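Subgroup meeting minutes
Present: P.N., E.W., G.H.
Scribe: E.W.

1. P.N. recapped why we're keeping a running log of single-chain structure predictions: easier to compare across weeks, and new members can see raw inputs and outputs side by side.
2. G.H. added today's entry (122 aa).
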Amino acid sequence: MLKHENPNIEIINKYLWAVRFSLIPFIPQINVSSDYTDNLNQEKFLLLDNGIVVLNKDDSIYLLLKTAFKAVMKLNSRQITKELNLYAVGALKKTSSKSIVHHAVLKIEQERRKVVKNHGNH
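Output recorded in log:
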């Protein structure tokens, strides 16, 4: 596991971090847009402007999200699109919490890659 200068930030990989969202106001390295400031503790993750996904360690599905993101981030863009298409045509079904999370993470990862591409963070 990578280490961050702030001990409250767990770096899972370059674009995947985890923190207790209750501590975000005290973590200057994480700039949260005004979209999230109303009730940050209710959020399961944040997608930052620099393309980093920050998972909420306080959330009940944190471990499921962490596992899903680690797996999906290893896929190339073509594989992500293919899996999303399989969901779209019904070949893959969103029938369990695991499959619902997997589908959501595929979509989030697709969006995250667009953010990285647009900001030139490789």
